[in-house]
Design goal:
Blueprint (H helix, E strand, L loop, with lengths): L5 H12 L13 H11 L3 E4 L8 H11 L4 E6 L4 H10 L3 E4 L4 H12 L4 E2 L1 H12 L13 H11 L4 H8 L3 H15 L4 H10 L7
């Protein structure tokens, strides 16, 4: 279980202890710790919150899909907006349940993804069906990046250096460096030059 609130972790542990065949083998308070736990503990299912300090649950889910693909991730979150739901699905989450769900629904979701199924709460399922049956909007370039990372990539493609990007966005140089490291990893590029080529080919590069 990965959640930055201890009471949620304790609550899930109590819920699982009341059901035969379930065991909480570890907990994590942030996304990076969740990834490490997935690698070292290899649980059947990792129940993940979305909003956590440092690495988000979405980014952690994507990384777990790369380093521990046998670990099934279920999102247990308060967020039911389209962006969060579809970002989780794209990241590889096999389940998405709201924290207001009945305890039995949480257990059912864990059991389903452990068995190789995908499960989403009723509201989430309706939203997904509406999205899939409706007109498909154009997919934004580099959808795997966060909005801020896309801003940084756009400025990189526009020829700005790290210091200029930091000044433009009003953040520290180190923050820009962290964004760039994440961008390179997500785009799987070797360096700045390759990132610029990718970005400009997608129409980015306007420094504003």
């Amino acid at each position: 279980m990965a959640d930055d609130h201890g009471i949620v972790r304790e609550g899930l542990g109590a819920l699982l202890s009341a059901h035969d065949g379930y065991e909480l083998v570890g907990t994590a308070a942030d996304g990076a710790e969740a990834v490490r736990s997935a690698v070292t503990l290899r649980p059947d299912v990792l129940v993940m919150d979305i909003q956590m300090p440092g690495m988000s649950g979405i980014d952690a889910t994507r990384e777990i899909g790369r380093v521990a693909p046998d670990v099934a991730v279920v999102m247990l979150t308060m967020f039911d907006d389209d962006e969060s739901v579809f970002a989780a699905m794209r990241a590889g989450a096999r389940g998405y349940v709201l924290k207001g769900a009945a305890p039995d629904n949480v257990i059912r979701a864990i059991a389903a993804v452990a068995a190789g199924e995908a499960i989403f709460g009723p509201g989430v399922a309706r939203r997904a069906l509406a999205y899939l049956s409706g007109p498909r909007p154009d997919e934004p370039a580099f959808a795997e990046l966060t909005p801020r990372e896309r801003d940084v990539l756009n400025l990189i493609a526009g020829g700005l250096g790290n210091a200029a990007i930091a000044a433009r966005l009003g953040v520290a140089n180190a923050t820009v460096g962290n964004h760039i490291t994440s961008i390179f990893a997500k785009l799987q590029v070797a360096g700045r030059a390759e990132a610029i080529i990718r970005a400009r080919s997608a129409g980015l590069g306007d420094p504003g």
